[in-house]
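Regression report. Comparing outputs from two consecutive submissions.

Submission 1:
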Amino acid sequence: MTSGIRALAALFLASLVLSACNTIAGAGQDLRKAGSAVERAAERNK
């Protein structure tokens, strides 16, 4: 039962993330922006 609840929770979270991106292109842009933010933070904290 616990694994079923976990699977449902994961599916729900994935649907939220994907609906926020709207399209595959939007998902790529979101990932690129997140990567850029991580890179900038790393450069600032050298």
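Submission 2:
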Amino acid sequence: MIKKSNNKSNNKSDRRVNKSHSFSGIDSFNALGDRAKKFVKDVNERARPKKGAKVKRTKIAILPLLGFEVAVATVLDKKKFEIIPLDITEKNLTEDYGQELFGEWCYPLKLTVAMIEKAIVKDHVKKFIGYNINICRYPLVMGDMTKWVKKDFEYYPVMFKEIGWSTDSCIDIFRELKKAIPGFSFMEATKKAPIALKRSLLAGELTNFYFKHLPLVSNPLFVKQDFKKTTREFILAEGVEESEKVAKAFMERVEKQVVRKKPKFKFLLSGDVSVIVLDFPIFDLDVFLAKNEIELVRPGFPPTVYHLRYANNGKKAKEIISKVLSHKTHKTEVSQHHVIESSTIYQILEGIDRGVDGIIFIKPNMCAPCENVSYILKEVKSFGLPIVEITYDEHQGVNGIITRLEAFINIVSETKNRKMACSQNKSS
């Protein structure tokens, strides 16, 4: 006969311990299952982003060309990608970055390499979407940007089959994005091609409005800063309607600052493509001219192959280039190797048709096609307009350029006054 123990524990903790070890086999299995379920639930809760928490996005950069940036941003998933802005005009770029670039390369290439390396080092960008216009050798080199930037990054250049904006050019961009972005749906992107095209064309209208109104406002520098912020908002806007709102708001702000009806002069900016489609890296050329009440006429994106072949000014440009570059014993046939020369002369002829008063021709050092254009401009007297040529590189001082521009403004003013006097004499 087993005697019952009269020793009862007064320790509550002991009783809890004994109770915890008194599970039956089924109870222990169920308890273990509950614990496993709780463990899985906790893991999922930790993995799931909390409400209001920012999801880490991949940083991506697009080479700065407003229409191109807009087209790419139209089909990027903003929840997955953070678009980092690039600025080729940032000071001291080539002093701190782009040191792997060597040899006789032009300053725009050095700036582009330094700009990309800075974005990798400082902004931690890992993926770049670039473009290849195929009109000079430095965009061709950009197809192998890893040759110059010794960092961990991915670079995807988009090759434009035809210079200019169209639905087909947008689709070409999306086809290249398929290679750059995992899980990118090309079919879904093509449905947005009309939206991308409308936004890109609207970006062109916004840029034209900016340059047309800059010399009419009281504070051009303030308007330029506002324009940079606006273009950033425009790139990130969703759809055509939101893009139109951003553009309209900017235009309304600028119109409130207009203090004069029209500029004194109009100058055509020609030459280096990077200066025309981006900005002059030495100083604020547009602001300087605007303070002198001068409208800077930018050709925008280079003319299409169709325009160079079949438009009247395209044919004229071809004739001028062939005539000037031909020798007595050899005739120069204008081909695809003369795209920069053809584009520049075409833009000058277009500027003359738009009634410009003078031409600013900007060329970087070490640019052979621009040297050809410089030779053509000196030989051809039929343009009938004052022309100033500005050569620049990383060693170029601002004061020298400003002095030349001030002298050029005086020449244009005197030329215009003489023409007005002659026309008045004829009429009288």
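Expected: both submissions complete independently.
Actual: both completed, but the second showed a warning that disappeared on reload.
Relevant detail on submission 2: The chain has 18 helices and eight strands.
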